[in-house]
Amino acid sequence: MEQKENLRREFLKGAGAAIGGAAVASGLMGLSGCAAPGGGAASGFEGFEGAIPAKWDHSREISMWNQIKTDDFEGMLAETITMPGYNGDRIHAYISRPLGKGPYPSVILIPHMPGWDEMNMEIVRRFTHHGCVAICPNIYERFGHGLPGDVSASAMKAGGTPDDSVMGDCQGALDYLVSRPYSNGKVGIIGMCSGGRHAFLAGCKVEGLNAAVDCWGGGVISPNPTPAQPVAPIDLTEQLSCPLLGIFGNDDRFPSPEQVDQHEEELKKYGKDYTFHRYDGAGHAFWSHDRDAYRPVQAMDSWGKVFEFFNKHLRG
Question: pLDDT tens digit string along 84-94?
Fold first, then answer.
């Protein structure tokens, strides 16, 4: 027991160096600071200062992990497929599903700007581990194949992936999912970074979505239209047709807290069903465990918020 406690303290010491002792302590004690649905008030980690208590309250640990029974069966099928995308193009997609007849809810993951990469595939499988069919279409298909970073760089050099193309690929993924015999007919969408922007845009433009999650989507408020991105997504807020969850870091600059405020005001203006969670001690891409930006406490807490949101809107 003493060895386990020492290991726990070493973890906290390392995490505290990354994101600040008070934030780590409060997060691991379960004080995440969240907004009420429709209210969207900004909040962060709060209510805890000082040393970690000697006695650990296991009932208040972040609960994303280890919520399985040891005698449960867990199995999944994950593979690369081709599917119809924008304008009927055949594009690659990575899909995973639980091994069973279902019916299961479905999630579309839009790739982030680093590309259609291994991180996306890992996230797809994570959703399946939690009981969802999940698919990630390769929105960069028209820029060729190769290493993900090289392909996404080609997309950036060409002015970015056109919004119409991404929305067409998302519609194709939705149509593919609801046609599966193991689908319950409900589909959510999520994206990080540029994918977060696309997820909000899809909530406004793609018919048939039941929920959307924007994780630190930069460019929702875009002052400079481009041929690939001719409309700022915030200007389409009135068209949002499904509940929205937003996950943001208060240290981010794209979007900045001020831009998140602006987005929130627009959602309020049109009476949209939304919930925003904002995290102190976190910036952009704080789920990315392959970067210095990773913030384990905020990441784990917000992952839990995503699962709660999708469970509410995609099941039953």
Answer: 999 999 999 99
